[in-house]
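Structure request: K-box domain-containing protein, Eleusine coracana subsp. coracana.
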Amino acid sequence: MPSPSSQASKQPAIAIQCARARVSAWLSCHKRQASLSILLLVATARTCRDRLRELIEQYQHTTNNRFEEINHDQQIFMEMTRMKDEVDKLETGIRRYTGDDLSSLTLSDVNDLEQQLEFSVNKVRTRKHELLSQQLDNLRRKEHILEDQNSALCRMINENQQDMAVGRRDLKLTEMPLAMLPPSAFGQAAAAYYGGESSSSTALQLMSAAPQLHHGGFRLQPTQPNLQDLHHGHHGLQLW
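Returned structure:
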């Protein structure tokens, strides 16, 4: 009869054998790649690493696969190859959008490309109309500003012209001889010369004498002797 200590030492070995049998049965039934790791806490001298190595070797033997060791250079080469393929696809798509490489396209591909281009053209036209509308609004605002400035300049020019016309008329009235003045100008000339209400009678006298001055050749002379025109032969009309 075996002792209890010998039976206790055989139990971990029996458990390991049962686990192996279960793994082998599962892999043989499914036959697909799987990542399997079993940690068994057993009271033996074997480490977990040894147990994992054995399980991996058993898995490889069952699935007929081997893990290939890939170094760093191969990984870089594979990444560069993938990026090159992606760049080639992008360049091919650009050439198709520009209409340079259409020989390899089928009718369905051409229809899809046409729809994509029409959609893009519609978006571009919409943006173009928005920009044109913004520019048109800016031009209209500038037009209103220029119209206001033009109106202000026209008013200033008209006011200056009116002031200049009044100044020229006053200058002509002051420089024109009395005999050449119209009858209506005597009142303004007398008022400008004498000023105030005291010159009203003198202005009336000048206006009544205007027809005679035109025919008789009389000239208006001041009462001061030194200002009288001694060299002219016509009669002088003195004002007082």
